[in-house]
Amino acid sequence: MEILYIAHCVPWPPDKGDRIRAFHSVDNLTKRHRVHLACFTRNAQDADAVSELRDRLASLRIEVLDLPTSLLRGFVGVARGGSFTVAFHHSPALQAHIRSILANHRIDAVVLLSSGTAAYAPATVPFLADWGDVDSEKRFQYARMRFPGFPHWFEGRRLRRVERDVALRSRRTFLTTDNELRLFRQIAPEAPLACCGNGVDVDYFNPGSAFVTPPQLRGRNYIVFVGVMNYFPNSDGACWFAEQIFPQLRQRDPQLELVVVGRDPSQDVAKLANRPGITVTGAVVDVRPYLAAARAAVVPLRIARGIQNKVLEALAMGKSVIVSEEVHRTFMPDCPVGVIACRSPGDYADAVANLPMTPAPDWSIADAARARFSWSAALDPLLSELDALEQQTTAHTVSV
Predict the structure, then answer these.
(1) Which pTM was predicted?
(2) Per the CB 3.0–4.6 Å rule, which of 105, 224, 317, 348 could disulfide with 294?
(3) How many angstroms separate the CA atoms of 212 and 193, rounded?
(4) Domain 215-372 CATH superfamily
(5) Percent of residues, the chain, with pLDDT higher than 70
(6) What is the DSSP secondary structure assignment for residue 39, as one 8-state letter?
(7) What is the CATH number of domain 2-199+375-399?
(8) Domains 2-199+375-399 and 215-372 share a fold
(9) How high does pLDDT run on average in the chain?
């Protein structure tokens, strides 16, 4: 089939949650169909980045967003009664390109990644909405935890209406977890919905892979937090853990360290490096050595939606992952092997105390993650929906 895939981000490099899902979705789609990709970036360097996916695409359009213009569009959209998120990502140039693709190619289906692409839902072609997380619910969580909260609450209401309206028009809307699916069924009970989870690149995140552990990591007694550190749930979780939990862990084990790994640390995260036992690395070329040399990964997020890729990557590396109750809830009712849920400072202290003293990988954790979280299995619901559409299209063509 001819597929038009519209994403709010460039799907390469696959180094953060939305890009990872986009990369593996496009990767799997191009193995079975002709794929036209239309997407956004806020960074011209991303548009020029090298990727093996480029040569496999039928066509590619990357729209570089001008931030002042996009912000203005967002505020105008709000003034007109719409969602800031949707208006921010609306580009007349990309809209014209999409119209051209639909007019000049026999596009059989459109896939929309995230509610930010809602403005591009076609009226005449079947489309799938891969919402992933319920973004409106994240806005409501921001409203409870960020100041001022009202703009986030207001955007949550506007975005929820968009999510529901587009889901009702879609052939099927996908959410990444059963929890997100149950929530969205309350929002749009009449909409055709399904669960389509995340996976992990088990060939790359493999404790047996050939990578070099930097000398500065060897022999250290540390736990690691990995993530893009200007993303609010990550920065909030890292700061909360460093301020509220880590000092108590150090009382039990004065040699214990916390290593925070990830690009673009916010000011608050950067300041954590002034605290005893805490290292903030910023961007690193390869996160695997930092995982491999750690006693465990910690993911203490207070805002968690969907599936945290950082959890899957650590599990695939054979690491126990110490998580907050919020992160644990995203995996329920079937929590993966190796995930340790914590509700209180004492829980975190007990979890760390029970860890092995050496950073050797636990292959039972790695093997369980590799078996459960392959990308081909995770994306099967979306790919199967396209297969069903292809069969219907073929049957209709034959009958005509």
Answers:
(1) 0.93
(2) 224
(3) 44
(4) Glycogen Phosphorylase B; (3.40.50.2000)
(5) 98
(6) E
(7) 3.40.50.2000
(8) yes
(9) 95
